[in-house]
């Protein structure tokens, strides 16, 4: 381990400490804002360190560097403007959109890694450690991306807030789940390559929609929190795919903390998470006077 | 299973436990800001996106990289700002009450 590696690993460790302490501070009203700022400081340090690592390695092509910079600039400006302009009442649906893109980014890391691998080497020769986490990452990330967008749409009123019964929803879910298992299994055993991975992506996106549509608007905050925990797990899986410890730590942290928070939120509403996922209750727009059908 | 993978799994499991423990009692008013704050933390995915840029050489790869970078940056920038806005108004309320009483 070179001196440079030691420093970068130490900074990543410090960032992880910032995330944990920041999250802890956020559980009390007095320290909450400081907690968020601490976690943001950790994030800036992690990003800055990664910039240095990339610059030092010099592996990335100029076009990749430009693409990365352009993407980050566009995303950061869009996110910052939306966060600044959003009305207080519309914040939950915006958080859901941020959650959706986070899950999408996690899934894209696995897909991007698979594309790079299929180009430079033999995708079928990838170890199970990579293929398994790739499938899990793409599955969880895909479900979060579409599920969070539907949840956001319901809260924003783009989609009706009432529970929307998907015709034969259970069978569609079963079919999609089987498709994930079949395609995922094929990918794990080194068959099919990118094509079956795309099939997993498509099925995961479908599951997210079918899962979220039957849930009423009033339950949406709990669902967003659950999908938030999903994204954390997807990010941790992305960390396994590319072998990045900060992603594994922060992803697992958010996955677990998000799960506990989801339970707390459901308890506060006197609802069980199982009943919420089953859907069909809590329309959230009863007062809007819209017909139920 | 390599020792390196095992080290990663150890980190994963221990981080899960830390995540479970770090959230204990949270007043209901803080549920949404906390959710938003946790949402911002998984914006660390941007580090992963930056790392895959090093292996990106194909046109499809550049497209995926652009999309992933925009997604991750939106998550991290927007996440922290919106959480801060939520907490800012949360903090203003007890202070106002303090002045009145």
TrEMBL record, chain B:
InterPro entries: NADP_transhyd_a_C (IPR024605). One of its GO terms (cellular component) is plasma membrane. It is found in: Cell inner membrane. Residues 9-91 form the NAD(P) transhydrogenase alpha subunit C-terminal domain. Keywords: Cell inner membrane, Cell membrane, Membrane, NAD, NADP, Translocase, Transmembrane, Transmembrane helix. The chain crosses the membrane at residues 6-24, 36-54, 60-83. One of its GO terms (biological process) is NADPH regeneration. It is a multi-pass membrane protein. It catalyses: NAD(+) + NADPH + H(+)(in) = NADH + NADP(+) + H(+)(out). It comes from the Bacteria. Pfam families: PNTB_4TM. It is an enzyme of class 7 (translocase). One of its GO terms (molecular function) is NADP binding. Its EC number is 7.1.1.1. The transhydrogenation between NADH and NADP is coupled to respiration and ATP hydrolysis and functions as a proton pump across the membrane. This is proton-translocating NAD(P)(+) transhydrogenase. The gene is pntA.
């Amino acid at each position: 381990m070179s001196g440079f590696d030691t420093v970068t690993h130490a900074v990543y460790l410090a960032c992880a400490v910032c995330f944990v302490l920041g999250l802890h501070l956020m559980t009390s009203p007095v320290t909450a804002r400081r907690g968020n700022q601490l976690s943001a400081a950790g994030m800036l340090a992690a990003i800055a360190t990664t910039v240095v690592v990339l610059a030092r390695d010099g592996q990335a092509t100029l076009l990749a560097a430009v693409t990365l910079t352009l993407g980050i600039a566009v995303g950061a400006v869009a996110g910052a403007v939306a966060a600044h302009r959003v009305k207080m009442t519309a914040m939950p649906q915006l958080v859901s959109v941020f959650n959706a893109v986070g899950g999408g980014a996690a899934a894209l890391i696995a897909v991007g890694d698979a594309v790079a691998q299929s180009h430079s080497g033999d995708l079928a020769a990838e170890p199970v450690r990579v293929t398994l986490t790739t499938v899990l990452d793409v599955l969880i990330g895909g479900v979060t991306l579409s599920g969070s967008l539907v949840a956001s749409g319901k809260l924003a009123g783009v989609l009706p807030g009432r529970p929307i019964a998907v015709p034969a929803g259970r069978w569609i879910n079963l079919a999609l789940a089987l498709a994930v298992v079949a395609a995922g299994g094929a990918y794990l055993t080194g068959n099919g390559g990118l094509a079956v991975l795309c099939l997993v992506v498509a099925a995961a996106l479908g599951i997210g929609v079918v899962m979220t549509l039957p849930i009423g608007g009033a339950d949406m905050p709990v669902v967003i929190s659950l999908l938030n925990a999903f994204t954390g797990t997807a990010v941790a899986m992305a960390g396994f795919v590319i072998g990045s410890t900060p992603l594994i730590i922060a992803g697992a942290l958010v996955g677990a903390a998000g799960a506990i928070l989801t339970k707390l939120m459901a308890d506060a509403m006197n609802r069980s998470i199982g009943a919420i996922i089953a859907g069909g209750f809590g329309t959230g727009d009863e007062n809007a006077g819209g017909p139920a059908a | 299973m390599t020792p390196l993978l095992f080290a990663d799994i150890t980190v994963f499991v221990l981080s899960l436990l830390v995540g479970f423990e770090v959230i204990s009692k949270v007043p209901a008013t803080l549920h949404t800001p906390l959710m938003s704050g946790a949402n911002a933390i998984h914006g660390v995915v941007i580090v992963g996106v930056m790392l895959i840029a090093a292996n990106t050489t194909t046109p499809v790869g550049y497209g995926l990289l652009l999309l992933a970078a925009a997604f991750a940056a939106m998550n991290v920038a927007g996440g922290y700002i919106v959480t801060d806005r939520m907490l800012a108004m949360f903090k203003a309320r007890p202070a106002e009450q303090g002045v009145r009483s």
